[in-house]
Design a protein that fits this description.
This protein is an alpha/beta fold. The chain has one domain: Alpha-Beta Complex (2-enoyl-CoA Hydratase, Chain A, domain 1). 46% of the residues lie in helices and 15% in strands. Strand 2, helix 1 and strand 3 form a beta-alpha-beta unit. Helix 1 packs parallel to helix 2, helix 2 runs parallel beside helix 3 and helix 3 crosses helix 5. The protein is globular and about 55 Å long. The mean pLDDT is 97. The chain binds (2S)-sulfonatepropionyl-CoA. (2S)-sulfonatepropionyl-CoA binds next to strand 6 and helix 4.
Amino acid sequence: MSLVMRERDGAMGVVTMNHPSRRNALGKALVDDILAAFEAFRTDKVRAVVLRAMPDAKVWSAGHDVNELPQGRRDPLGWDDPLRTLIRAIEDFPAPVIAQCNAGVWGGACEVALACDIVVATPRTTFAVTPAKLGVPYNVTGLLTFFNSVGLAVLKEMVFTARPIPADRAEHLGIVNHVVSEDEIDAHVRDLADAIADNSPLSIGVIKEQLRELAGAHAITPRMFERLQGLRRTVYDSHDYAEGINAFLEKRKPNFTGD
Ligand code: YXS
């Protein structure tokens, strides 16, 4: 059974995450179903994609599926990781992807929402950046997604505290395009999609790709890259990384020692 619902609504394709028992955690099975929807929408040449959760979802997405994170001694966010694959699919999709958020957006799901081209949220939506809560060394392109959406001081606060920020603050900070009530958000997103659909899909697709290339253009030397990867390895090889993962799976508070 698919973990998403897929529908066409005029010129837009809508994919709705529907795995409530795991709070839409972005495990391989859910991500594969989202990617299949994206492929179908690419074939249909939709003018916009909407990524959302069910209207009654308790959580928009709980982020990476912690059960699928390695226990240590392996990069937890390598190139082929489902979360990384989903982020690239959003960035590479030839039409705008709109994140329609209506509840808690956690960890890697926060990166997914911010990788989307437009974010529309309801007032009860929150956004949390959680690597430090689990002891995870986030990856370089992932940090760049956040860095391109969130001012550095706010990003540091979100990473270091791992506390969720409310939708109205996210809107005030420019992280979210619009905050709209639960009963108006569907029409609001459809209106955005209709406006996009009225314009040139070729121009939009090319400008989206130009902006992606420009946003990712950072002078990083091979030496710098290897140093960043080495720093990350000291974390995912650490006791604290294993402790963070195990504490989550054992449903207890982690005891980080800095080792
Ligand atoms: O106990 P059962 O089997 O019913 O399962 C529970 C949870 O274990 C499960 N679940 C998850 N499973 C895998 N990965 C997850 N991220 C995840 N989150 C939840 O779903 C069942 C219901 O969860 P429960 O009882 O906690 O639901 P709730 O409604 O009371 O609370 C919802 C949340 C989202 C507030 C709570 O589940 C939570 O705090 N989840 C973890 C959020 C989080 O820290 N996500 C980051 C994951 S790691 C990640 O995204 C990146 C690697 S990073 O950390 O670097 O950003």
